[in-house]
């Protein structure tokens, strides 16, 4: 398949491929679809509904014009998923896009896309924005190459309740159940699927890979591609103690703490944030593109005293919770392709390498690639990701850099 070339960024958001950069410019201020909101659940008890089942009638998605030329079906969906925190049944919104033309023998293959950080406020669901809050340029190449696209908004984005930001288990469940929802929308969809994600989404599809053998029963995962994944963010704590957080990491920190507080309501944000960084943490919850300048200004103005843990016990608690929420956790179900930027100042290269080493020790099959001179986000790794993906569908043995 053709693969999008990309540019990189040092911000917490991802940047669109260069060949579609004009779309990024046009979509920078994409508004919420007029009159659209997440539909109310139409069932009495979510616990009585199978994971991935649709909870309401799918709605037409009148999204970015480029999508309409590639899709035969474009629907926003509300589906049942499962919290990775307490196992509770949840409702999650998302998007299903079906390419034009006739499906191949065996049905359309599916890609479940884990989108990068779009904000932690409920308004920041990509499926409620025309340009998918920057994810439209990730979606287009897959549609053009004959994939049904399933993209979860993640729990708490577009639906009631808080968003458990960077809780890998929850996001992994959401990614898997999006595939099931897509198969309800389009009956000619295959049970074979891949996962593709960037940053937060890179973690989400990695977690989905780990959970696919059990939670993903009934589907056949071919493999996952994680670009600039947020793996295990526990090294942030050492940088907080040492006072060496990068500006990009400072911008991420309020959202990380907000996400952790969903699973751990006793977490005291004041144990870690002070001054403007604490008082204006709402700035960092805003949606993609809304407060980028203000975020950067705040991040550049803080001092190490504004984010230092109050004591060693607080540092140890945060480190343990971040490790628990991240990946790897268990052995993966299918092969993985993992890419990272040499100059990534958000999820540092050594963090990704260490996470892959731990996954290799669990027996995973991983091809790890570095993108020289590139930062955090979608990475330009040439034809390597596409060739790797084609090999998985062709049934050839997956390459591995483990060992």
TrEMBL record:
Gene3D superfamilies: alpha/beta hydrolase. Pfam families: LIP. SUPFAM superfamilies: alpha/beta-Hydrolases (SSF53474). It comes from the Bacteria. PANTHER family: LIPASE 5, PTHR34853. This is Lipase. It comes from Rhodococcoides corynebacterioides. The lineage of its organism: Bacteria, Bacillati, Actinomycetota, Actinomycetes, Mycobacteriales.
